[in-house]
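pinging the channel bc i need a second pair of eyes. not urgent but kinda urgent?? the chain im working w is below, pasted from the shared doc
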Amino acid sequence: MQWLDTLRDNLKLRPWWMNLLMAFCAYMAIFYVPWDFLFKPVAQDQEVWFGILLTGWAAKATEPLHWLIYAAGSLGFWKMKAWMFPWASLYTVQVAISMFMWQFLDERGQGIVGTISALPFIILAIALWRSKPRFQGTDIGD
């Protein structure tokens, strides 16, 4: 099966943790964000940017940007595009900052827990930054 060989060859381009990131981006781009945008009632919609919780129409209006980020991440990881460096790492830093800031900006925040919850994203951002040589682009799956 040609598609299975293509998938197997592609998965060898990156470490397991980066394959998980690619799968997460694909899931978010194909399933979660479209469902959230198209079917979730506006009154229940929430998006977080830089630790600031947006609700209702403000959240709904920013969902296409989240979709674009996840779609670009899926494609960028699949093809190991050069433009993924430094953007994957910088976006991950933004997530870490959001996790940290959320703890102080939202009434449900838990102070020091923000530092702890941001730590895995900081480690991931460093790993992505150090992976620059992997992001050279490929013709697998083209």
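so The chain is about 70% helix and 5% strand. and The CA atoms of residues 9 and 90 lie 27 Å apart. — does that match what u expected or am i reading it wrong
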